[in-house]
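thought: fold this chain, then report.
action: predict
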Amino acid sequence: MTLLAGAAAVVLLAALLIRGARANRRSWLTALSLPGTWVLRNAESLSVLSFGGDLDSGRYTWREDGSEEEGEWRLHGRTLKLTPDGGEVLDYELRAFGDDSIGIDGPGHQRCVYLRRRDNVVTLRQRS
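observation:
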C-alpha cells in the first residue's frame, strides 16, 4: 500500500468516526429533549427550571423560593453550563434517567432530581 492510499484510509476512518460521534450526540440530545419545564422532585420548596431554545442551548429561567434567575444555557458534553444574566458561568453535571427525569449536581444544587412537567394545554387556531 502506498503512503497516499494509507493517508486516504486514515482520513476516511476519521471522517466515519466523527460522523458516528455526531449522530450519537444528536440522538442523545433528541432523547433528552431538555427544552421544557422541569420541577424538583420531593421538594419542600418549589423549584422550577425552564429551558427554551434548541436541543443544546438557549435561554433558561430558574424559579426557586420566590426568587427568579434568568440567563443562557448550553450543553458541553454532559456538562450543563448556566450563565445568569450579568453573572459568571456555572457548571453542573447533568444526568438523564430516561423516565422524564434529570439529575443536576453543582453549585447550590447538589444531587437534585427534576421531573419533566407535562402541560395538557393544546394550542388551538383562532377562527378568522
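thought: worth noting. The mean pLDDT is 84.
final: C-alpha cells above.
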